[in-house]
Amino acid sequence: MPRPPKRRRVSFVPTFTYFKPAAVPLSQLEEVVLAVEELEAIRLRDLEGLEQEECAERMGVSRPTFFRILSAARSKVADALIHGKAIRVEGGIYHFEGVPLFCPACGYRWLGQEEGGCCPRCGSPDTSPFPGKGHCWRHGWRGGGG
Fold first, then answer.
1. What does the alpha-carbon distance between residue 30 and residue 87 come to, in Å, rounded to a whole number?
2. What is the DSSP letter of 22?
3. Which of 13, 88, 123, 145 lies 20 to 30 angstroms, CA to CA, from 116?
4. How far apart are CA 14 and CA 43, in angstroms?
5. What is the DSSP string of 35-88?
6. The model scores a pTM over 0.90
7. What is the pLDDT of residues 51-90, one digit of tens each?
């Protein structure tokens, strides 16, 4: 039996989770699914300009694992750009760390260390990162992983 994959540390809640070519109806598009940890790898390496060793450390994975995550992400983005596909950011094997959390039961917000813990105010286990711009808690965006 193979070992279950280690959850990757993510410290960025994506505000936008869907990208598509302009003037092409959704019904005519193929999609590429970019996992949340793949987006985090691109953000750390290509946007923040960090070295791979520091990126891997921040995500809590080895350098070879970070390289595989980054390579897969870049390949998916290139496929979408070259072939005119939509990109959907969702899923993956990750947990949020050090991001704002929200309790829909009582409305309390706090800075948590890991998504999925209980609300410190009411004890509700149903917590998640703040719903971002363009996302709606009621309609299912929860931002959690694995």
1. 9
2. T
3. 88
4. 10
5. PHHHHHHHIIIIIS---HHHHHHHHTS-HHHHHHHHHHHHHHHHHHHHHT-EEE
6. no
7. 999 999 999 999 999 999 999 999 999 999 999 999 999 9
